[in-house]
Design a protein that fits this description.
By secondary structure, the protein is an alpha+beta fold. It contains 14 helices and 28 strands. The longest helix is centred in the last third of the chain and has 18 residues.
Length: 650
């Protein structure tokens, strides 16, 4: 048998092996991605010519040989006099052109919209006397809104509830409302302080109701972001993944997009509407504009990717097993980061971490994971412990790839069941020696960690070069890593980092699928990182490229509740053409019926999810006492924009 052992520290091994092409291709389809800034007119012209493949901005026309994807753009907010809710219902004419009338802060683009659909429908249907608007109108970009709550740091995407509609309602409206009930409800949702799905949904609905109680700021509707990509038979792209909230400038796009003329490799050209204005800060809060998000989504590799059309997270570089308990879980003596945090937790998560090489050639180790916690230090953390290091093998006939996989347990307190794994995973997309360089630079006053740019700030790049040389000479090891790193290892790390800087001219080293090869002030060129230690390969996220839907076709009453019939979409390919067809769910498709039973008092009396069986049947067990049934069929977790049925149910 032919073994390729991909343990820490091994040199690059090509994909051609034993005289044939190895059937695993690390990283994703394009071999190079160029990101540039283009105005809408130039972008439209280049899309039509086939010299631009995707545009993360809005066009005024639909160029020939293109297609478009739709995502949530922003909220239309009106500022009106206090207690003017009734007047706000008549402000539909005030909406800007193209905006959607939707006077409710949770939209169909949110995966939790089902929890609010009946109230949102009622709000849309209730209109007052149409009046001329004389107040202040603003559009709040959903990306900017999420950035306010995001603690994006080195592969940690932010709080698990970042993409939930109730949180967006809170971010939009809480500043104008002073009510302790609002803060208590939001805190309970964040901590998972509820005993059932029904209680959680009622908390969400009540929170939004409280937020809307006063009307200094009123949600009138939302805008839709339409972004185009080239769909030419030869020069276009396919498999174009996008995010319901972030559009093309999202993590899923570079992991799925494929040039039509290349089964893999090829040169992908994408553009944003403006040059980068946000610092390229990999530690905290950088890459905040569309240009930066296109770059960072390809350079970084988070532990979990946001489900592009769902409410949860997709395992990327870690897998997790969560143990929750009503009784306190003892934190082992000697666990890291446990001092002063209490000796018990409510959740224990065991992670399997898929290590790989960093772009400077150094290999991930437990020290990299430990140092990430010293920077982030989440309040829910109660302890971290390395259990063992396993070996995972990926077999292709006689050929095998073997990976070292640290198994790490993490203890947390005050987290919701479904959120626990993504709160504080043992992960970093930046190596410890790079973080140590940044930390020392901040300590010396060169910059603050919240505001610096290790790529485009030429003076800082030069200062960091001097500092990196000094740290190599000193064999500097941060105090937290002394038990894990010796002087020889530290010198080797800093030496590799300095060699990377000499070759690339910047300090942006990650373990992501692409490397920043060059930046000339107008374009960023990213080269693929086909290192065999990288555990994801082309096709890994193809299932998320097209958000297929399920549809409720019939609802029939039964003595025990209801029988629901559904159909699901699937892709059919003929040559290079792909079309969506509908029919009964296939065995491999995970289709479910999600439902709410609303009582006469407007509260959720029952809620749940039922897997569709043979011929697309869902059998719902419903207790008496409901007034309305709110129902959606969801395929593969793609709940955003799922068709929803609301029917009377006495």
């Amino acid at each position: 048998m032919n073994y390729l052992v991909l343990a820490a520290g091994l040199a690059f091994l090509g994909v051609a092996h034993a005289g044939h092409e190895f059937p695993f291709y690390p990283s994703f389809y394009p071999q190079e991605i160029t990101v540039e800034a283009l105005d809408a007119q130039t972008a439209a012209q280049r899309l039509a010519k086939g010299t631009l493949h995707a545009y993360a901005g809005t066009l005024e026309t639909d160029p020939a040989k293109t297609a478009a994807v739709a995502s949530l753009g922003g909220y239309v907010i009106a500022r009106v006099d206090r207690d003017a809710c009734a007047a706000a219902r008549g402000l539909k004419p005030a909406l800007p052109a193209g905006a959607v009338w939707h006077p409710y802060p949770v939209t169909p683009f949110h995966a939790d919209y089902l929890h609010h659909a009946d109230r949102a429908e009622a709000a849309r249907a209730t209109t007052g006397e149409q009046k001329k608007f004389s107040g202040e109108l603003e559009i709040i970009d959903v990306g900017a809104l999420m950035a306010k709550a995001s603690a994006r740091y080195s592969g940690w995407p932010g709080p698990p509830w970042l993409r939930q509609g109730w949180l967006h309602a809170y971010l939009l409206l809480a500043p104008a409302v002073t009510d302790v009930r609002i803060e208590n409800a939001a805190r309970r949702l964040m901590r998972g302080d509820y005993r059932s799905l029904e209680e959680r949904i009622n908390l969400e609905r009540n929170l939004v109701e409280l937020l809307q109680a006063r009307c200094e700021r009123v949600v009138l509707g939302y805008t839709v972001r339409r972004e185009h990509y080239g769909a030419d038979y030869s020069q276009g792209v396919e498999n174009v993944g996008y995010d319901a909230l972030e559009g093309l400038a999202s993590a899923i796009f570079p992991r799925t997009v494929k040039l039509r003329d290349f089964p893999w490799n090829g040169w992908l050209n994408v553009a944003a509407p403006a040059p980068p204005s946000s610092a390229w800060n990999p530690v905290a809060g950088g890459f905040g504009d569309a240009f930066g998000r296109l770059v960072w989504s390809a350079l970084s590799d988070p532990a979990f990717l946001p489900s592009p059309h769902g409410g949860g997270w997709i395992e990327n570089r870690v897998s997790a097993s969560v143990e929750k308990s009503q009784k306190p879980i003892a934190v082992p003596a000697g666990a890291l980061f446990s001092a002063g945090r209490g000796k018990t937790a409510t959740a224990r998560i065991v992670y399997r971490v898929r290590n790989s090489a960093f772009h400077d050639g150094t290999s991930m180790s437990f020290a990299d994971l430990v140092y990430a916690y010293t920077f982030m230090n989440p309040e829910q953390l109660r302890g971290v412990r390395l259990l063992r290091v396993d070996t995972e093998t990926l077999a292709f006939g006689e050929d095998k790839l073997s990976y070292e996989v640290p198994v790490v347990e993490v203890y947390l307190d005050g987290v919701a069941d479904g959120d626990a794994a993504s709160v504080a995973p043992p992960w970093t997309t930046l190596p410890w020696h790079l973080l140590a360089l940044f930390g020392e630079g901040a300590r010396r006053g060169y910059f603050t960690l919240s505001e610096f740019d290790p790529v485009r700030d030429a003076a800082l790049v030069r200062k960091l070069a001097e500092l990196a040389r000094e740290l190599e000479e000193r064999a500097y090891v941060p105090p937290a890593l002394v038990p894990y790193v010796n002087a020889q290892e530290a010198r080797a790390r800093y030496r590799a980092l300095r060699e990377f800087h000499a070759a690339h001219g910047h300090w942006l080293v990650t373990n992501g699928p692409y490397v920043l090869e060059r930046w000339d002030g107008a374009k960023a060129v990213l080269g693929v990182f086909r290192d065999p230690t990288y555990p994801k390969g082309i096709g890994s996220f193809n299932a998320y490229a097209v958000p297929l839907k399920a549809h409720v076709t019939r609802i029939e009453r039964r003595a025990s509740g209801a029988e629901v019939r559904i159909e699901t979409e699937r892709l059919e390919r003929e040559g290079r053409d792909v079309r969506i067809v509908r029919g009964f769910p296939e065995k491999k498709q995970a289709a479910v019926c999600r439902y709410l039973l609303i009582g006469r008092d407007g509260a959720v009396a029952a809620a749940g999810e039922v897997r569709a069986g043979a011929e697309g049947r869902c059998r719902l067990q419903l207790k008496p006492g409901g007034n309305r049934l709110v129902l959606a069929a969801v395929l593969e977790g793609s709940a955003a924009n799922a068709p929803i049925r609301i029917v009377p149910w006495e």
